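Methods: holo model generation. Sequences were used as deposited, without trimming of termini or removal of tags, and paired with ligand SMILES retrieved from the corresponding compound records. Each pair was processed once, and we did not select among multiple samples. The sequence and zinc ion SMILES for this entry were:
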Amino acid sequence: MKAWFIDGFGNYENLEFGDFTDTAPLKGEVRIRVRAACVNPIDRSVITGRFPWMQMPHIPGAEFAGEVVERGEGTEAPERGRHVVVFPKLFCGECYYCIRGEQSACLANKHMESAPYIIGLQRNGGWSEFATVPARNVMEIPDGVPFEQAVTLPVDATTALHLVSRCRPSVGEKALVMGAPGGVGSFALQMLKMYGCEVISVVGNREQADMVRGLGSDHVIDRNLKDIVAEVRSITGGRGADIVIDPLGSSTLQTSVEALAPLGRYATCGILTGPKAELSILRLYSMQIELVGSTSSNLPDMYAVLEMMGRSKLRGAVDSTFQFSEMRQALSRLDQHGRLGKIVVKI
Ligand SMILES: NC(=O)c1ccc[n+]([C@@H]2O[C@H](COP(=O)([O-])OP(=O)(O)OC[C@H]3O[C@@H](n4cnc5c(N)ncnc54)[C@H](OP(=O)(O)O)[C@@H]3O)[C@@H](O)[C@H]2O)c1
Ligand SMILES: [Zn+2]
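and the model returned the structure below.
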C-alpha cells in the first residue's frame, strides 16, 4: 500500500511517500481503508523527534476515518463497508485505571510522564491507504456525517471534552479559552457552551473572531489588540474567569492564571509554546486556584462526541482540505498563524 512514513527524525522533507508493507488484521484487529485524516501538532512532534525512542519506520497520523475492509478472525467490529473513525487512545483494558473506565490513564503507557499512548505515535498511524488497528478503537460514524467532519473528532473533540469535564463547569460560570480557533479550543468552546458557561475566546485576527462567534462564543478578545487580563476583568465585572482552558503552555500560563477568579480552574492538555513557566504559589493558594492536567480521553468521550455530531450539536471547524499527495503542504499549513480550525487530508 502507499503511505507517508518516516525512517528517522527531521523536517517535513524527511517524510517519505512510497510503498509500505500492509499487515492483515489479527484477532482483535480491524483493517480500514482510510478516507480522511487530520494533521495535528502531535504529528509534527512525531516527525521532528520529540519522542526519540519511537520505532522506525513509522507511519504518522493520529486522527483518521475510513471504511472497514477486513476484521480479524472472530473479531467483533462494525461490518465490512461501514464508515468508522479510529479512537486513537491505546489502552490495555485490564489495568487499575482501565477497569475503572479511565482509559486516559492506562498504566500500559511506558512513557506516561512525557508522551501520549496513542495510535500514530506508539503504533503506526493513518497517513496511508490502509490502517490496521485494535477493534476496540473503531467506532461507527453516525448516518449522514461525512468523513471530513467525523475525522475532526478523535484527537481534539475527545481531548476537549475530557479537559472541560475535568474542570467541573457549571451553569453561568465564565470560561476563557486560549487558542480558541485551534483544534482543541474550537471544540472546548462548544462544550463549555453546552455546560451553560459564558465563553470568552482569545483570537489573533478578525477572521478568527468571526469564526469563534459562529461556534457560539459570547465574547472575543483579539490578543494583538487588547490586554487579555484587563478584558476578562471588564467582561466578568472584575471577578475574573472561573475556568481557563489553555493548551498552549509556557507563553500563556501567567496570563491564564492572572485571569482566573477566586476558586478558578486552570486546565491544560498541551505545551504548544513550551513546557516550563513560573507560577506564584502565593497566588495559587490565596486565590484557591486549581491546576487541572488532562490528556487524551476515555472511551465514553469518543461515543459522546460522535453522538453530538450525529445530532448536529457539535461542528468540526475545517480550515483547509488537502489531497493525499499534499501531506507536506498540509504540515506547512499547521505552522502558519491565523488558521480557522482543523486541517483535513482526503485519502
Ligand atoms: N494531551 C492531549 O491529549 C492533546 C490532544 C490534542 C492536542 N494537544 C495539544 O494541545 C495543543 C494545542 O493543539 P491544537 O490542535 O489546538 O493546536 P492548533 O490547532 O495549532 O491551535 C493553537 C491555537 O492557539 C493559538 N495560539 C498560538 N500561540 C498563542 C499565544 N501565544 N497566545 C494565544 N493564542 C495562541 C493559535 O493561533 P494562531 O492562529 O495565531 O497560530 C491557534 O489558534 C498542542 O500542543 C497539542 O499537541 C494535546
Ligand atoms: Zn490499562
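Residues 141 and 319 are 21 Å apart (CA to CA).
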